[in-house]
Amino acid sequence: MITEEKIKEVVVELLTRASTTLPPDIISALKSAHENEELPAAKMQLKAIIENVDIACKSTKPLCQDTGVPIFYVKLGKVEHGNINKAIIDGVAEATKKIPLRPNAVHPITRKNPGNNVGMNMPYINYKLIDEPYIEITAFPKGAGSENMSALAMLVPSQGIKGIKEFVLNTVMKAGSNPCPPTVIGLGIGGSADIAMKLAKEALLRPITQRHAEPEIAKLEEDLKEALNMLGIGPMGLGGKTTVLGVNAEYAYCHTASLPVAVNVQCWAARRSSCRINADGRLEYEKGVC
Q1: DSSP secondary structure letters along 202-253
Q2: pLDDT exceeds cutoff 70 at 290
Q3: Do the Cβ atoms of 174 and 233 come closer than 8 Å?
Q4: What is the CATH number of the domain that holds 126?
Q5: Rounded to whole angstroms, how far apart are CA atoms 117 and 114?
Q6: How far apart are CA 180 and CA 163, in angstroms?
Q7: Do residues 99 and 159 share a domain?
Q8: Are residues 131 and 252 in the same domain?
Q9: Cα torsion at 210, 214, 216, 218 (round to 10°)?
Q10: CA–CA separation, 277 vs 193, rounded Å?
Q11: Torsions phi, psi of 120, nearest 5?
Q12: How many domains does the chain have?
């Protein structure tokens, strides 16, 4: 039996790790960008980002003042468990005080702030059923600077791959320095409007070192990364070689008469942290840089 208290403890730890460190693929990409950068201003910004991550790591303090809104992905296996929703909600409230996290979650109309990042549909929890003897939880805090630059286009099929590329390029160009580049671009293709947006965010869960399993999609990811880095926006919009650290794409079959395309932008602070809770209580945390 995986208890509610155990899940809550994991949630607090996941938010701590996600807020104070970066996944290995992201920090490696930042260091590589710093080594390859030639423009002094861009190189300076990348150096500052890397030093900031190191300080946050060592002090266990949030690496960005915008600690995001709490989004979770849960792979639910065939195990006995307590109330997962309540455990995650309670974990978010506790983590907000303990870490601490900035209380970002507010009522969309009244702007009332409960002060603990808990409210209607927040934290937002995505579930996926799996045929395994464990529960896997991923914390995915998402800041507003990058999220505000996300976009959806309902293309017509005749626009094809060219239309997809143009939309992504225009979206990143329009975003400019607002999402705190270098960014990671999540691309969702197909399905319907809501499915494309969902896929775009889910694409950001995959390490940027892993290309899509299908060659056509993998090539699109590589082509877009190359094209986006030719825009010259650079770190924090100051120019340079690195506008994006990576592009991840996911897709779904869609109606023959439509071609939905969504972009979810993630800032350089591409925070995510996962833990597998086994049926026997063993915890397996995803490796971080600390």
Answers
A1: HHTTS-TTS--SSHHHHHHHHHHHHHHHTS---GGGS-SS-SEEEEEEEEE-
A2: no
A3: no
A4: 3.30.1330
A5: 7
A6: 26
A7: no
A8: no
A9: 0
A10: 33
A11: -60, 120
A12: 2
Separation of alpha carbons 96 and 85, rounded Å: 17
What is d(CA 220, CA 34) in angstroms, rounded to the nearest whole number? 25
Q: Is the dihedral of CA 128, 147, 227, 50 positive or negative?
A: negative
CA dihedral of residues 160, 161, 164, 170 (deg, nearest 10):
-120
Query: Does 236 share its domain with 249?
Result: yes
Statement to judge: residues 74 and 127 lie in one domain:
yes
Q: Give per-residue pLDDT as tens, 233-254.
A: 999 999 999 999 999 999 999 9
Q: What are phi and psi of 15, to 5 degrees?
A: -65, -35
Position 227 in a domain: yes
Write the DSSP string, 135-157. Answer: EEEEE--B-HHHHTT-EEEEE-G
Relative to beta strand 183-190, strand 244-252 is: parallel
Residue 289, pLDDT score? 62
Range of the domain at 136: 4-21+63-143+271-285
Tell me if 41 is assigned to some domain: no
Q: Both 112 and 153 in a single domain?
A: no
Q: Which two tokens stand for residue 122?
A: 């927040």
Q: How many residues does the chain have?
A: 290
Helix (H) or strand (E) holding 72: strand 71-76
Q: What are phi and psi of 137, to 5 degrees?
A: -115, 130
Radius of gyration in angstroms for the set of CA atoms belonging to the chain, rounded to a whole number: 19
Between vectors from CA 16 to CA 68 and to CA 185, what angle results, nearest 5°? 45
Is the pTM value of this prediction over 0.90?
A: yes
